[in-house]
Amino acid sequence: MPTIYDNVIVLIPFLFGAVVGSFLNVCIYRLPAGLSIVSPPSRCSTCGSGVAFYDNIPILSYILLRGRCRSCGAQFSVQYPFVEALTGVFAALLFYVYGVSPEFFVYFAFTASLIVITFIDLEHRIIPDVISLPGIPIGFAASFFLAAPGVVDSAIGIALGGGLLLGISYSYYLLTKREGMGGGDIKLLAMIGAFLGWKGVIVTVLFSSLVGAVIGGGLIVMSGKKGRYAIPFGPFLAAAALLHLFLGDSIIGWYIRHAVGE
Length: 262
Fold this sequence. Notes:
Radius of gyration: 20 Å
Mean pLDDT: 85
Number of strands: 0
Largest sheet: none
Oligomer: single chain
Structural class: mainly alpha
Number of helices: 8
Number of domains: 2
């Protein structure tokens, strides 16, 4: 049974993640608009009033203020506390798996970038190059210091991740004469390959394609529309990448055991 000490230890990375999640909300709002993520300080988008430090406590301030601006009473999106809580949960999970280690900080930065990409792509249908492009060399550089995936696997992951989606996108265009996948998805998968290696690319593509097909088909059925139904693919790539980060070895091991008939 977990002790009070164990609960406190897990709470610390959660709080750390929630604080970072507050900053991620700034990135999600400002990056698509081309605004600085450093200045000005947080302010209400309705009345322009600055948000005081005591009204900027992750999750708690939203609850105490009932999701409204103290100055004008405008409603804030529930996305703000959700992103903070989500980032906190992932920080706690990463701490549980890796403890205080280089892996924790590298994979937390990777996870945080995927959270930002997911929410931006859901709303604006774009994946910012300012995140994915620097993420490729950062992930490759990290492979020199981490036990996994290793330098070679990271390099192969970059080539496979970028090349695989590029090939699929080009093939789709040749067959349909229509753009089927954006360049942002290609760069994102290359970044995923840099952090997770070539095995991570394969797991990510398989699961994102499966889930994307199921959800996309469901949306078409519910909407009653026929033909093309555009949905952002970045969130599926991000979710599948995180699935591999936490369960990739188990998934691959399960597949190998069943593939060889054990």
